[in-house]
């Protein structure tokens, strides 16, 4: 079986991101003649199905350990919330999707290094991340949803719960969900791990706050 390595600006990285953006753009353009709410629901279900396929490919084709396929990473949870948001159109969820979308952007720009055996996995990996951003854009354009203070507070609370959940599972399984059990990038190991954790989590909160301040509702 073929083996490929994902790293920043590799052929697989660039092609995966290009195809994912292209598919998402087509999905957005195709929405024009359809009822926006019904098409939004379609996109929401498509996101959840795509994430399910992504997990199945990881388990049965890429042969990842089952514990590593658990959707407890930041972007995995954002993907699920994005799907639920488009299906339910709950405006508070829009703010969470928006405030968490930077994780998807960073993953598209700076993917972690890993090996894989099928390019199909890479397509679903990048497509689900692009769809987080697509959900925020779709909600803004077609649902007329905007960032709210209550939604911002909920995004911080959910982030805190996600980190706590990650600590619990990491301690039980030895995993690195949310990158709070080991450095997100090897070169950061020059700093003490406790300092890394504080800076890493603080940076998350600062970015979410900055995004909220930039596009918050104007009174």
Overview of this protein structure:
It is a single chain. This protein has helices at residues 11-30, 36-60, 74-88, 91-109, 119-142, 149-173, 193-215, and strands spanning 4-6, 114-116. With 219 residues, the chain is mostly helical. It has one domain. Helix 2 packs antiparallel against helix 3 and helix 4 (91-109) packs antiparallel against helix 5 (119-142). The model has no long low-confidence stretch (mean pLDDT 93).
Short description:
With 219 residues, the chain is mainly alpha-helical.
* Domain module count: 1
Low-confidence stretches: none
Shape: globular
Provide the succession of SSEs: EHHHHEHHH
Helix content: 55-70%
The main β sheet shows up as: 2 strands, antiparallel
Q: Give the end-to-end Cα distance, rounded to a whole number of Å.
A: 58 Å
| C-alpha Rg (nearest Å) | 17 Å
Beta-strand fraction estimate: under 5%
How many β-strand runs? 2
Strand arrangement within the widest β-sheet reads: 1-2
Q: Average pLDDT, to the nearest integer?
A: 93
Q: How large is the count of helical segments?
A: 7
Kindly name the structural category: mainly alpha
